[in-house]
Amino acid sequence: MKLRVSHGPHLFTRETTQTLMLNVLIALMPATLVGIYLFGTKAALVIAVSVVSSVLFELVWQLLMKKRVTVMDLSAAVTGLLLGLNLPCNVPLWMPVLGSAIAILLVKQLFGGLGHNFMNPALFARAVLLASWPLHMTTYHLPERLLFGSETALSGVDTVASATPLLSLGKLTNTDLLIGNIPGSIGEVCKVAIIIGFVYLMFTKTITWHVPVTFIGTVIIMSYLIGVDGIKAVLTGGVLFGAVFMATDYVTNPMYRLGQCIFGVMCGIIVVVIRKYGGYPEGVTYAIIFMNCLSPLIDRYSKKKIYGEVKKSV
Amino acid sequence: MSLFTFRGGVHPLKERGAGKDATCSKAIREFVPEVVYIPLDTHIGSASTPCVKRGDTVLMGQKIADAVGGIGIPVHASVSGTVKEVGNMQMLRKMSSPYIAIENDGNDTWAELKPMENYENASREEIISAIKEAGICGMGGASFPTHVKLNLPEGKTVDTVLVNGAECETFLTADDRLMVEQPEGIIKGLLIAMRAVDAKKGIICIEDNKPAAIETIKKAVSNASNVEVAILQTKYPQGGEKQLIDAVLKRQVPSGGLPMDVHAVVINVGTAKAISEAVLEGKPLISRITTVTGAVKEPDNLLIRVGTRVIDAVNACGGYTETPGKILFGGSMTGNAIPNDEVPITKANNGIVVFNEQEAKTPEEFACIRCSRCVDVCPIMLAPYELKVLLSKGDLDGAKEKNLEDCILCGACSYICPARRVLTPAFKEGKDMLAMRRKKA
Q1: Interface with B, mutate which of A7, A210, A252, A300 (most B CBs under 10 A)
Q2: What pTM, to 2 d.p., does this model score?
Q3: Is the CB of A9 less than 8 angstroms away from the CB of B341?
Q4: Which residues of chain B have pLDDT under 50?
Q5: Is position B30 within any domain?
């Protein structure tokens, strides 16, 4: 009789990298579908090109480098979808392709593949595109269709030449902001869809509350402190999307829950500071990738006290 | 009422098939094989030296091998009959382990037993010596000789003896059934152990998924004023010695220390029962309760003789349901995989768990995604992901610096890892290498 001999444990949780990534994809579906509804086929195209090119870049790289092909872990698909949802619907289609190349090849694979990138690949790609082609990246079209109604404060305007209409805050109702009848990146406009995704991620225990709650909470409090409506501050721009889907990226945020709270608070502070004093109207992307770089440092100072740490008295 | 517990931990019982349903209501049933192969070196400490030879007639409970060294224990015949063989075979940890095979005459004739007349007046030394003579070692899995554990060095004091009835491992119900069916033996064993270490208090600790055991034990302790019952939250590794002490006594065993450093001693419920039989009836440890489950036809709790081969125990439970792929001594978190089904059971073997070929497969390892789950569940608050990186680089000193030696090898991190990182086995290897290095130095 041949029996397998190995060291324990001999039993594992059902959760795998693949199921976690699948959970993220599922959680992104409401935002994706509403985005496509609002912005039409061109949005669908941007998303599709982004996802397919991300997966292909990873596949081709791994084949060329004779590495184990791991596209089935779905992490490249998640990166591609996140990138697509972070673009305005009217970008030329070479931009999601280039963004995917930056995300997958430069940020992820060159640093050693999944788990070794020190910044969120999709966000860094977005940052590069934003800095290199600001006109494409900040020209937002109003949705083709609107949810529950046909009029918003911005009706009649074709495009808004600024990142998400932070500048025209006063004119929009919270309802428009919540359901996404505003110009913006494909995935970030409909806050309700993002909140549904957040609930799903919490319910499946894919993420914990630490990063999103501290991030969003800090933005609200900080905004009120500088005299801005905190709720509107969260309902505009990419705060909600960033806090739920980008800052929660396992690889690039701290390992310890305490560290994750510090990370979230710092992200929130930086967002509000950039919005108030920075040259950019929106700062979520930069806040998160900046804090990504600080994660190792936060990890070093937020370690847990180990059991029985007091050394044995000799 | 709030339940006792510790920080971290996992819930492997919720996994399909890993629960205790198959055997938790199966009453203990005795099984005696035709031949026993009694292992001589499965306890911690030196192998015992045979004091019988081939052809000798032995009685049940007769000593067949002498203790060697300070932490050795003697071994006794678990059946009456004829010594068939004194030899070596591949067993648990080693390629070649000594054993004595005895052909059972079927009479179960006891050797002369010397019960202690009045243990309440016996000295600590007398009790500990009786425990040693009975060949008792920890029956929860670790098999550390009990007389060593109870023999406190100069200057150490113990105020509480904890009886570990947590049984947090998957699959196993042997301790549960023992508590339900023989609570008196456990309590008497506890009182004797308390006397041996001069402790004022005894606490029997049970996880809240064993309501029947809690009820019987509670009823049985109602007339012992210095014994309490602590109900623990069901969570793995709640039955870990350090976790149990932390949960119930709110004390942390110092890094590198022993429970006695915080004035506590922990013994398994089976060990407590064995102590009471040894002292009150003079019976050595020759049988124990073992859960036989998994891919067997009729999963059961067997009162089984030490030295019974796995295949005999499995056949006593109706045989395999399908081709076994892996057989564990113990549960699926910390159990040891055995090389073949001819291996005999030991004094510490609380379970035989049979996996089919599908369940036996080792999952493929992927890259760490830094999901934080391992640091969340580690009951020692270590950083398993970081230790793994250091060990794969061969940086043993770095791992030591990050407290690798405090790892209790519970397997919680490996269990929870979505990338199926080989964590616990790597830590075991690292700890062994550090121990070897210390020995050489």
Answers
A1: A7
A2: 0.92
A3: no
A4: none
A5: no
